[in-house]
């Protein structure tokens, strides 16, 4: 019976006690106990214990650990782990954290760490270095790597050229499947991962691509030319990464060739980088709609965060003063009828929320290219209709409640009329503001909010106080 | 000189005129002229012209075209294209559009269209059918396909089992690389795309996986066992798709094995489906933060949209009444000093916006697992500090402007004090509300908004009117 009752798991004697510390709990959150143990090992400069803790960690786990540590512990972790620290982990942390860490490290440490990386990861790290140090690190690299990295770095920021991997396999079209497979078996220095091989002419122009499964399914004597896709998915190196991401998303790609202006193959871009781009983009949209700068991260300092949030609050303050100016026009009405002062924030807040609903849908649809010239009018009509309908419904609800609350059916009628007008204007503002900003090349996610709420506030206060003044002859 | 001046491109005589109609313009938006031409062809029931227009279209382009057409034209396009219509296009449209189209089609048409699809696409379409029709379609399929699809459909909605592809390659560990490659060359009925082959025991348990590039690089006599990764990336079929997506994102995967409760291989999940899941998830977060249901689509009807947006506006109305109740407490103060009525919306609006900023950051960080128990206190302290700092800054600005506007330094002082308190509470509300909702298993993206704004409204009105009442002895 003892075995049945004893539910405590026995410690396995052949495993060290630290093994029991899971990096993540069941919900996927970082385990605070693990973090404490790692911080302890760093503070005590116990390289062995730290090594044991992070044994077998994936670069993304190392990255998460770095972010969770206190800022001064981060470079010390890297120094303690020495050669066994995988620099790819630095590509998994926020840019601000990466910059901070790199500032603390010796250029020779960085050069050594960068050497073992795929070119796209190396570029991500080099991007985060100040010009001078970047040059120093590049100097310490072997010439071939240096040239390849320098070429990537010469492309504009956030372009396909920066995200691409310069390691790829490219064969001539007259090779056979057998030759190609033998080549891959014999070459030690292949890219770490690849999903297609490219076909080029002697001048390096991209002719085609063969997916690996296609290659595997073909018989040895077949030539590459016969099985290659001669319209391979390609992007220009100067193309913005978001455009590349849309392409991957639209055509379900895992890999695409990157070519220069002359159509010469210069690299390959893989889906894992695209997943990161899509996440960054969604992140940026979410933050911007909430009035936060797209690059704000949890790791930012208080002062930086305060300053970065200031402009939006300032813009909001200006529009709030505009709205207050509208209220002041009706100062006398308010003095005669204080109920108006009590109810007016309700009208404005309903308008603000309805406007935000429409704006959210419009901004997102613009970002995903679902909303465009072809359907703009249809969507505007739909939003206006939704606005009027919700206006009618809430006019009845709010009107009734206000009538009862202030024992005056007339005040119910006035707030109801005001609500219909504000919800219609909220719908129109919510769609026209993003469309207009987009037309003029301004990112609607960043700047729609203050415009929409100032429209709804002004229309809300003006229509409610205006209708009341006329109705009650105040 | 004529050649230089003549900039009009000559029409190529060997291409039909319709070729000139691009599906998308340079900005990636659907070309309205193309849409009009397609709609014309459908209205005139000219199958040939339509066929010519969509010749060589990718499934995603066909999908975009379907969405852009008027609802009654959509099923007619499918009927006109007949066998040449690729049913995979239906997986690229909004769920509501898919359901509408499928309702209009004969079950035999659907059954035939589904037969040629990968199992994951077929499941996506079958999911959108009402139970009865789903059974009818399944009945018309060959037994093997029916069983595989039925098994996927038996897994819960939005699980890995629903998203997986049931076509995969699985070999025993004792096979050689040569045997495996020969098998793939000789088997006609392989999955359309795959990036790894799986290794199973006779009972179907997953033992390992071999990436295709690894297979290609190995010599023919090497056994699979020697080169396989014996801890392959795997997910349970019942796992939620969002958890699977986080895994792909974290470990940069392109493919993962799907196993049942007993560890038997039942399918493979590929990165292109994961990209869609990530997009859906980001979309849902953005919409929910803006007070819109996550499944709202541009293609929804006016009535559906109005009803789906109602609850959020209603919740907002209730909190607005609460705030109005707070104002009413200070009715007498307002009667004596109408300036308070003019300025109070500014305080509330500043609080609302500051709260939204913090909330946006918190909700997003919770969704991406960047915010958790390990760092919650650090983030709370940071947000509180940012709130107090911005409170001080705006107290000075707003206080000065209000003093000048109302010729009263005292009113400036009062609004400044109120602002500090409301920005601090906004920061605390913005972080505690999402954290608390998350703790209780409620999605913070859906419900944080109304809570946060009701906190900021109530604190805003109460502190401004309260401080004013005490200060001016109203």
CATH class of the largest domain in chain A: Mainly Alpha
CATH topology of the largest domain in chain A: Tetracycline Repressor, domain 2
Number of strands of chain A: 6
Q: Residue ranges of chain A: pLDDT <50 for 5 or more in a row?
A: 1-18
The topology string of helices and strands of chain A comes to HHHHHHHHHHHEHEEHHEHEEHHHHHHH
Mean pLDDT of chain A equals: 87
CATH architecture of the largest domain in chain A: Orthogonal Bundle
Portion of residues within helices of chain A:
55-70%
> Into how many domains do the coordinates of chain A divide?
3
Shape label of chain A: elongated
> Kindly, what is the distance between the CA atoms of the first and last residues of chain A, rounded to a whole number of angstroms?
88 Å
Tell me the greatest interface. Answer: A-B, 115 and 115 residues
InterPro entries (chains A, B): CBS_dom, CBS_dom_sf, Mg_transptr_MgtE_intracell_dom, MgtE_N_sf, MgtE_transporter, SLC41_membr_dom, SLC41_membr_dom_sf
Subunit structure (chains A, B): Homodimer.
Membrane topology (chains A, B): Multi-pass membrane protein
Pfam families (chains A, B): CBS, MgtE, MgtE_N
Question: Would you write up a description of this structure?
Answer:
The structure is a homodimer of 474-residue chains. With 474 residues, chain A is mainly alpha-helical. The first copy, chain A, folds into three domains: 15-158, MgtE N-terminal fold, CATH 1.25.60; 170-289, Roll (CBS-domain); 302-471, Tetracycline Repressor, domain 2 (Orthogonal Bundle). The first copy, chain A, contains 22 helices and six strands. A three-stranded mixed sheet of chain A has the order 1-2-3. In chain A, strand 5 and strand 6 (265-270) form a beta hairpin. In chain A, helix 8 packs across helix 10 and helix 16 packs parallel to helix 22 (444-471). Chain A is elongated, with a radius of gyration of 30 Å. In chain A, 49% of the residues are buried. Mean pLDDT of chain A is 87; it is low at 1-18. At the A-B interface, helix 4, helix 12, helix 13, helix 15 and helix 16 of A face helix 4, helix 12, helix 13, helix 15 and helix 16 of B. Chains A, B: Pfam families: CBS, MgtE, MgtE_N. Chains A, B: It is a multi-pass membrane protein. Chains A, B: Residues 1-26 are annotated as: Disordered. Chains A, B: One of its GO terms (molecular function) is magnesium ion transmembrane transporter activity. Chains A, B: Residues 1-15 have a biased composition (Basic and acidic residues).
């Amino acid at each position: 019976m003892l075995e049945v009752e004893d539910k405590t798991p026995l410690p396995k004697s052949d495993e060290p006690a630290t093994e029991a510390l899971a990096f993540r709990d069941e919900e996927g959150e970082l385990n605070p106990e693990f973090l404490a143990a790692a911080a302890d090992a760093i503070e005590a400069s116990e390289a062995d214990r730290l090594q044991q803790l992070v044994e077998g960690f994936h670069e993304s786990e190392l990255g998460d650990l770095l972010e969770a540590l206190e800022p001064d512990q981060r470079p010390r972790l890297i120094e303690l782990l020495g050669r066994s620290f995988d620099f790819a982990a630095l590509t998994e942390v926020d840019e601000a954290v990466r910059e901070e860490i790199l500032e603390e490290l010796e250029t020779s440490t960085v050069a050594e760490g960068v050497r073992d990386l795929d070119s796209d990861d190396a570029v991500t790290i080099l991007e985060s270095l100040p010009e001078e140090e970047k040059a120093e690190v590049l100097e310490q690299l072997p010439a071939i790597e240096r040239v390849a990295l320098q070429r990537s770095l010469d492309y504009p920021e956030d372009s396909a050229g920066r995200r691409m991997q310069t390691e790829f396999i490219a064969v001539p079209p007259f090779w056979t499947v057998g030759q190609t497979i033998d080549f891959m078996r014999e070459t030690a220095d292949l890219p770490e991962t690849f999903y297609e091989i490219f076909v080029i002419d002697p001048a390096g122009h991209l002719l085609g691509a063969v997916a690996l499964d296609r290659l595997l399914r073909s018989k040895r004597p077949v030539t590459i030319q016969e099985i290659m896709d001669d319209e391979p998915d390609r992007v220009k190196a100067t193309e913005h990464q978001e455009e590349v991401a849309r392409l991957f998303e639209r055509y379900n790609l895992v890999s695409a060739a990157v070519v220069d202006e002359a159509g010469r193959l210069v690299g390959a871009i893989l889906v894992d980088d695209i997943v990161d781009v899509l996440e960054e983009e969604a992140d940026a949209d979410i933050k911007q709609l909430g009035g936060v700068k797209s690059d704000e991260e949890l790791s930012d300092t208080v002062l930086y965060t305060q300053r970065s949030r200031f402009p939006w609050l300032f813009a909001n303050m200006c529009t709030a003063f505009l709205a207050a100016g509208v209220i002041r026009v009706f100062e006398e009405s308010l003095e005669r009828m204080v109920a108006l002062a009590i109810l007016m924030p309700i009208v404005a807040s309903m308008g603000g929320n309805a406007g935000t609903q429409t704006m959210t849908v419009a901004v997102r649809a613009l970002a995903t290219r679902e909303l465009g010239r072809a359907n703009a009018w249809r969507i505007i009509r739909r939003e206006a209709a939704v606005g009027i309908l919700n206006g009618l419904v809430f006019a009845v609800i709010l009107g009734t409640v206000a009538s009862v609350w202030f024992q005056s059916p007339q005040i119910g009628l006035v707030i109801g009329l005001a609500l219909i007008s504000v919800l219609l204007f909220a719908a129109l503002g919510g769609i026209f503001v993003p469309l207009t900003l987009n037309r003029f090349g301004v990112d609607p996610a960043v700047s729609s909010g203050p415009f929409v709420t100032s429209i709804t506030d002004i229309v809300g206060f003006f229509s409610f106080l205006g209708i009341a003044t006329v109705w009650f002859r105040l």
